[in-house]
Write a structure and sequence with these properties.
The chain has 20 helices and 18 strands. By secondary structure, it is α+β, with helices and mostly antiparallel strands.
């Protein structure tokens, strides 16, 4: 059964049983700044699980996009992925355990409407009980009835503790016991197993979790169960990739049609002979291929939802995934620039499922390619620095237990700040070579570095320029155009109150009392883009302060300037320039270098001060 058919069957099954079909929410939560991504199918529905009425009713079904990085070290095995999709059906104070369990069994085993799995290969776990809630005999009894009615013999119901069969989204929120269904991948475990045999089969990945019914009837606060919810809810579902693997008779998700195009493209760019020459084992090569496939797929879906590589928050996760993929591509001897084509294969898989993936296919590929090239500028030198540091530790390692040999914080700091290695990548490299890492010393160095960088940036340019990369220069020049465009649209009362520029975006604070209208923002964008399209030269002159002030160049009033000041102006000459400001520079040479200017957000900072965040695309 192809993955596209699995999607259709799942949604149709529950739609027929009165469930409204929901589109997936974006990967980045819209109203929850406490988390970077939606990490579970229930996350976008928490308000409704807590009692808020959903506009589409009490029965819902969806396939939700998720990203989870806590298991990133497990990527490369048979089942773990960073980006995944959760199939879920929901009861908001409607049906409860009996209907949920019976429909789960029917969906999994029905050949007409469901997935047609062999019921003799199903095994089930239930909550064994603890101080928070009693043993879930109700669910176990329903399963006993189902197995007896369908002539399924042998021991196949096991009670497990809360770390296995209790679900909650975190320290606070709706929670409750769950019952999980496992499927025998070998086809040989059909007559039942003891609990010990089941645990061994699970550990060997001979069986795989294929469905999960969470019965949310409790409320958690600050890590403790504090009572019951007003209405009992059901969160039922499973990982789409794992279900697909089972239905396609695969023992791992990377051999399914979800990953086949990317894995096939990786095989095109590698060869067994070359991998052998590099001295890489077959298992290590397979793990590397799977990591690359997972990471480029995850990157494609993140970018399609508006995430761009950066050094903070969601952008840092994206950057880490792409750079980790680059490292493993190098390990396999793949040509530079290969991620562009791998990402192309990844977008092809999802373009008919998620509209943004199709619309932004070129942007996705170019973004990944740019990040790869950016990292390659320092990757080779950084690896030399790492190997040089490791060489100095080899003798110490030979004379002591490897766990007692530590990669110094000074080296880690240099790799992170000078060569752009994500800290987690350095830890991974060290682990592969048998070293611990001095993360305490690194953290102290990095904290001091951030404080110094922040102070330096404040002193370096009044324009808020934090570095002198090409992209930051573009944003610096765009800030001057924005300042003048705001004065054109809103009035001469607009004065710069501060700015902050990174390679990813510009932030500009200005004096204005009212929220900008959509029309005002559109006018500002139009003016800036007209000046960019006009290919205006960007020039600089040094003038005595008094003479510079007479030109009308903008500057911070009350700021202390020297006898001579630097004025940057955008236009043919100082007298006829569109924009002119006191500024320490540097800037681009011509506005045609900027690209297209787009306002992302306009908001209040304090009384009488507004803030614009904008990007160049």
């Amino acid at each position: 059964m192809q993955s596209s058919e699995i999607r259709k069957r799942f949604l149709a099954f529950f739609e027929k049983r009165g469930h409204a079909v929901l589109p997936s929410a974006p990967l980045v939560p819209e109203n929850d700044p406490s988390v970077l991504f939606n990490t579970a199918g229930m996350q976008p529905l928490v308000p409704f699980l807590l009692g808020e009425k959903h506009p589409l009713g009490t029965r819902l079904v969806d396939i939700q996009k998720c990203v989870r990085t806590v298991d990133i070290d497990e990527i490369g095995d048979n089942t773990h992925v960073t980006f995944f999709e959760m199939m879920g059906n929901w009861s908001l104070g409607d049906y409860f355990k009996r209907e949920a369990i019976e429909w789960s069994y029917e969906l999994l085993t029905s050949k007409e409407e469901g997935f047609g799995l062999d019921p003799n290969r199903l095994y089930v776990t239930c909550f064994e009980g603890d101080d928070n809630a009693p043993r879930d005999e109700e669910s176990a009894d329903i399963w006993r009835e189902i197995f007896k009615k369908n002539g399924i013999g042998g021991e196949r119901i096991y009670f497990l503790p809360a770390d296995k069969n209790w679900w909650s989204p975190g320290e606070s929120g709706p929670c409750g016991p769950d019952t999980e269904m496992f499927y025998d991948l070998t086809g040989t475990l059909t007559s039942g197993m003891t609990k010990e045999e089941y645990l061994k089969a699970d550990d060997k990945q001979q069986i795989v979790e294929i469905w999960n019914n969470v019965f949310m009837e409790y409320r958690k606060k600050d890590g403790k169960v504090v009572g019951k919810l007003d209405a009992k809810n059901v969160d039922t579902g499973s990982g789409f990739e794992r279900v697909t693997a089972v239905l396609q008779n695969k023992d791992n998700i990377f051999d399914t049609d979800i990953f086949a195009p990317v894995m096939g493209k990786i095989d095109e760019f590698t060869s067994k002979e070359h991998i052998q020459i590099l001295g890489i084992s077959e298992n290590a090569a397979l793990r590397a291929k799977r990591i690359i496939a997972d990471h480029v797929r995850s990157a494609a879906l993140l970018i399609s939802d508006g995430v761009l590589p950066s050094n903070t928050d969601q952008g840092y996760v994206l950057r880490r995934l792409i750079r980790r993929a680059v490292r493993y591509a190098d390990m396999l001897g793949m040509k530079h620039g290969s991620l562009f084509w791998l990402t192309d294969a990844a977008t092809a898989i999802h373009k008919d499922v998620y509209e943004n993936v199709g619309k932004l296919a070129e942007t996705i590929k170019v973004t990944v390619d740019k990040e790869e090239q950016k990292f390659r500028g320092t990757l080779s030198e950084g690896m030399k620095e790492y190997k040089k540091g490791v060489k100095n530790l080899e003798a110490e390692k030979g004379a002591a237990d490897a766990s007692g040999v530590t990669l110094p914080g000074e080296l880690i700091f240099k790799l992170v700040t000078t060569y752009g290695f994500p800290f987690e990548m350095v830890k991974e490299l060290a682990k592969e070579d048998g070293f611990a890492v001095d993360d305490i010393d690194f953290s102290a160095r990095f904290a001091e570095h951030k404080n110094l960088s922040r102070a330096g940036a404040e002193q370096k340019f009044k324009g808020g320029l934090g570095d002198t990369s090409e992209q930051s220069l573009r944003y610096h020049t765009a800030t001057h155009l924005l300042h003048q465009a705001l004065r054109d649209v809103l009035g001469d009362h607009v004065q710069q109150k501060g700015s902050n520029i990174t390679p990813e975006r510009l932030r500009f604070d200005f004096s204005h009392t009212a929220k900008m209208t959509d029309d005002e923002k559109t006018q500002v964008e139009k003016i800036v883009n007209e000046k960019i399209a006009a290919a205006l030269p960007v020039n600089v002159e040094q003038l005595p302060f008094a003479e510079a002030e007479k030109t009308g160049a903008h500057h911070f009033f009350g700021e202390k300037y020297g006898d001579m000041v630097t004025v940057y102006y955008i236009g043919p000459d100082l007298a006829h320039a569109y924009s002119k400001e006191f500024c320490g520079g540097p800037h681009v040479k011509n506005t045609s270098e900027l690209g297209t200017f787009k306002i992302q957000k306009e908001e209040a900072v304090s009384q009488g001060v507004r803030r614009i965040k904008a990007v160049l695309v």
